């Protein structure tokens, strides 16, 4: 009897996970990717998506100088914690913001100002857009500037993204160590 209940519970859990994953990919490929593989920037992710983690590139001379905050859909966090994989339709948005500085009651503080750019990755487990330079290695890759967030200014994965992402190849091209939200719940 006990064994049957356990098996049923596992089956229900597995089915829920599956249903979740299906909704996610349908939603992504309806709302953020058109039929030709053009990616658009998801809007207002700070309000409803999960914050995965923050980086700061503090050296003014670095190309990435600024605050980097990374977001994904809440379902992706649930699925990643169970499977250690990004499901089809997972979207990662990295927002880069300027560094502001000034005296606060806590001390000399830096905080994030205006957005300069957004980097976007869209998980594609089906190799949907063969021959499209913005789709490679199981992801769609895009870059948007604040001055015109409707235009993907990336020259393609190989020309614009690959060189820098090679160190993360073993973790599906994502710099996982910066994303504690994917690992476990906070107390
Ligand atoms: C100058 C090197 C560099 C270039 C060019 C670059 N990336 Fe990244 N990217 C990184 C690094 C390093 C991180 C994580 C640490 C950080 O943000 O400083 C990152 C993180 C990201 C993230 C957050 C998820 C993750 O993978 O950790 C996304 C999304 C992303 N990059 C997309 C892109 C896309 C799309 C392109 C091309 C249009 C691109 N990147 C080009 C270095 C780069």
What does this structure look like?
- It is a single chain.
- The protein is an alpha+beta fold.
- It has one domain: Chalcone isomerase (3-Layer(bba) Sandwich), CATH 3.50.70.
- Helices cover 28% and strands 32% of the residues.
- It contains 4 helices and 7 strands.
- It has helices at 2-31, 45-48, 74-83, 157-165; strands at 50-57, 66-72, 91-104, 107-123, 135-136, 139-145, 148-152.
- Strands 1, 2, 3, 4, 5, 6 and 7 form a 7-stranded antiparallel beta sheet that branches.
- A hairpin with a 2-residue loop joins β5 (135-136) and β6.
- It is globular.
- It starts with a helix and ends in a 22-residue tail after the last helix.
- The structure holds heme C (HEC).
- The site of heme C has 23 residues, from β1, β2, β3, β4 and β6.
- Heme C binds at residues 55, 57, 63-64, 68, 70, 92, 94, 119-121, 141-143, 154, 160-161, 164-165, 168, 174-175, 178.
- It comes from Pseudomonas weihenstephanensis.
- Keywords: Signal.
**CATH homology superfamily:** Cytochrome P460
Q: In total, how many domains does the architecture comprise?
A: 1
Main sheet characteristics: 7 strands, antiparallel
Shape: globular
CATH architecture annotation: 3-Layer(bba) Sandwich
Approximately what portion of the residues adopt beta-strand conformation? 25-35%
- Stated plainly, the CATH topology is called Chalcone isomerase
Instruction: Please report the first level of CATH classification, the CATH class.
Output: Alpha Beta
Oligomer: single chain
Using only C-alpha atoms, the radius of gyration works out to 19 Å
How much helicity do the residues have? Answer: 25-40%
Bound heterogens, unique: heme C
Strands, count? 7
Structural class: alpha+beta
Please write the string of helix (H) and strand (E) elements.
Answer: HHEEHEEEEEH
Number of helices: 4
């Amino acid at each position: 009897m006990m064994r049957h209940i356990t098996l049923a519970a596992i089956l229900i859990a597995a089915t829920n996970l599956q249903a979740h994953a299906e909704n996610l990919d349908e939603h992504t490929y309806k709302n953020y990717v058109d039929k030709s593989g053009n990616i658009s920037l998801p809007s207002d992710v700070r309000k409803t998506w999960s914050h995965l983690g923050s980086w700061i590139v503090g050296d003014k001379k670095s190309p990435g100088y600024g605050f980097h905050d990374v977001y994904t859909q809440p379902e992706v966090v649930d699925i990643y914690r169970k499977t250690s994989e990004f499901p089809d339709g997972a979207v990662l948005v990295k927002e880069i913001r300027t560094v502001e500085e000034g005296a606060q009651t806590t001390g000399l503080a830096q905080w994030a100002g205006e957005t300069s750019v957004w980097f976007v990755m869209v998980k594609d487990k089906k190799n949907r857009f063969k021959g499209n330079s913005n789709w490679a290695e199981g992801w769609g890759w895009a870059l948007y500037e604040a001055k015109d967030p409707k235009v993907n200014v990336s020259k393609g994965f190989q020309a614009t993204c690959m060189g820098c992402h090679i160190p993360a190849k073993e973790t599906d091209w994502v710099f996982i160590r910066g994303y504690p939200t994917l690992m476990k719940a906070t107390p």
